[in-house]
Write a structure and sequence with these properties.
The structure holds two protein chains of two kinds. Chain A is an alpha/beta fold. Chain A has helices at residues 2-21, 57-66, 81-93, 126-135, 147-150, 169-172, 174-187, 217-225, 241-247, 260-279, and strands spanning 31-33, 36-45, 71-77, 97-105, 110-114, 139-142, 162-166, 190-193, 208-212, 229-232, 237-239. In chain A, helix 1 runs antiparallel to helix 10 (260-279) and helix 2 packs across helix 3 (81-93). Chain B has one domain (2-194). Chain B has helices at residues 3-9, 11-18, 27-50, 55-64, 67-81, 89-97, 101-116, 119-126, 129-154, 159-194. Chain B is globular.
Chain lengths: 286, 196
């Protein structure tokens, strides 16, 4: 039994070593196309605590940098404080641009309010929540607008700046994917790809390319308002045809494959985890 | 068989035997299993998000997710004070954490999904709600039986007392744990449903 415990510890240690070696910030020079700075963004990100996610705001910022993101919006449910913490932290470490945001988590709609300063009540109607977002200088993005939320967007759809046309729910069901595309075509707003990150899978697994004049918060918000965004879902590209022509061959349309060391770390880590759970410690009194 | 697996498969027999062993608890005894749980939670967080175990993610996550084992230590300490157990508190805490395998194995299975599959496939498989919720209910029910055996056999409570301790533990740990995890969104859901 002692050997099994030692083996579990060794597996976890080997996984950590492989993980640490393969863990690096991608060196990527800023990309400029057609006079625009092209920024990789994930505009729907949750953090721990209080927002159904596993990583604290500062770890989310570091994780975003490791996944090659230039912009994130911390969108805690019905609050903005985590976004302010993340922005403060990111400015100190020279991390990605952080837009303070909120996911207005209402019964009939979910709204990403990005670039705001004070929380917006979930008791507001969708139209009022969008107007309040605009009043605070932010942009309003429909979060995962699948059919169950469509009724909630009545009277507000034409006010939206963006809508999530790519979201992990599209990978769960074909119906959800079709719903997102239909809503996007009806709204005529900027296409947005967001991972709704909660610590499961990669931050930026679904992402938006923002064509901004610069990487400031105002520059990014202005680009979204002007619909200068592109989203790749593997098969399709969403966004302005001129931007698509600019981007052709210059932007990765799929997530990169994981390296062998990273895969090894995952397999060793799972094996070590199972071993540690099953073997634990010997009884104190044995 | 390792004591944790024995407790998982035959909790009554295992706790009955383990509770009768002479106790040599030290300070390390009280921290080792809660610490292991925190470390494994940190490892799971890292594996789920990046598919690899990196100290950059695992260590801070282990630190802030340690609120879960700490909550459980607090609940066991309260139940221990109301019990007439001949064992030391350190040993009682250690034996309680020997019974966490069902939940940890569920977590390991869920972690494997996210760590080993590419994001589109992982999300697709996570959509089998009946499977994941079914396994979680199974783990929850079996874990409740294990903890009931613990309160009954290790802390020497009556059946009613063990049931009360179990309810207290679940109310505090699940209530506080869920609040820390999802309070604002959860409150909106509850308030909307209740018409508040």
């Amino acid at each position: 039994m002692r050997q099994l415990r030692a083996a579990s510890a060794c597996l976890l240690l080997a996984a950590a070593i492989c993980g640490a070696i393969s863990d690096s910030v991608p060196g990527r020079p800023p990309l400029t196309l057609g006079g625009y700075r092209v920024l990789a963004a994930d505009l729907h990100v949750h953090s721990f605590p209080l927002s159904a996610a596993t990583l604290a705001p500062w770890d989310v910022v570091i994780e975003a940098r490791h996944q090659g993101l230039d912009v994130i919006t911390l969108t805690a449910h019905n609050m903005v404080a985590p976004g302010k913490v993340a922005r403060w932290f990111s400015r100190r470490i020279g991390g990605p641009t952080v837009l303070v945001g909120e996911e207005v988590h209402a019964p009939r709609y979910h709204l990403i309010a990005a670039g705001i300063d004070t929380p917006i009540s979930w008791r507001s109607s969708a139209a009022d929540a969008v107007r309040e977002t605009h009043r605070q200088g932010g942009v309003a993005i429909a979060a995962h607008p699948t059919a169950e939320f469509w009724a909630g967007w009545n009277g507000a759809i034409e006010l939206l700046d963006g809508t999530e046309v790519l979201h992990p729910s599209a990978w769960i069901s074909q119906g959800a994917a079709e719903n997102l595309r239909e809503f996007y075509h009806r709204a005529g707003a900027a296409p947005i790809g967001s991972s709704d990150y909660r610590g499961l899978s990669l931050i930026g697994a679904c992402r938006t390319y923002v064509f901004a004049l610069d990487n400031s918060e105002q520059g990014i918000l202005e680009a979204i308002r002007a619909h200068r965004t592109l989203v790749f879902d593997g098969d399709r590209v969403y966004g302005d045809a001129a931007l698509q022509a600019l981007a052709a061959g210059n932007l990765p349309e799929r997530l990169p494959e994981r390296g062998s060391l990273s895969r090894a770390s995952g397999i060793l880590g799972i094996a070590g985890l199972l071993g540690a759970i099953c073997c634990g410690f010997r009884p104190t009194s044995a | 068989m390792p004591s944790d697996l024995w407790v998982m498969f035959r909790p009554a027999a295992a706790y009955s035997y383990l509770s009768k062993l002479p106790c040599h608890a030290t300070r390390w005894t009280v921290v080792r299993r809660p610490l292991l749980m925190a470390v494994l939670l940190g490892c799971a967080v890292s594996l789920m998000t990046e598919g690899r175990l990196t100290p950059r993610l695992a260590l801070p996550a282990a630190f802030y997710w340690s609120f879960l084992p700490l909550l459980q230590v607090g609940c066991v300490a309260v139940s221990y004070r109301r019990a007439r157990s001949p064992r030391s508190l350190a040993s009682a805490i250690d034996l309680f954490f020997a019974g966490t395998a069902p939940w940890m194995l569920w977590l390991a299975a869920y972690t494997s999904l996210w760590a080993l599959a590419a994001p589109p496939r992982a999300y697709n498989w996570s959509g089998y709600h009946k499977l994941w919720y079914g396994l979680a209910i199974l783990a929850g029910c079996w874990s409740a039986y294990i903890d009931f055996c613990y309160f009954r056999l290790v802390l020497g409570k009556t059946a009613a007392g063990a049931g009360g301790s179990l309810l207290f533990h679940r109310a505090v740990c699940w209530g506080f744990g869920l609040a820390v995890f999802v309070l604002p969104g959860g409150w909106q859901t509850v308030a909307s449903w209740a018409g508040l």
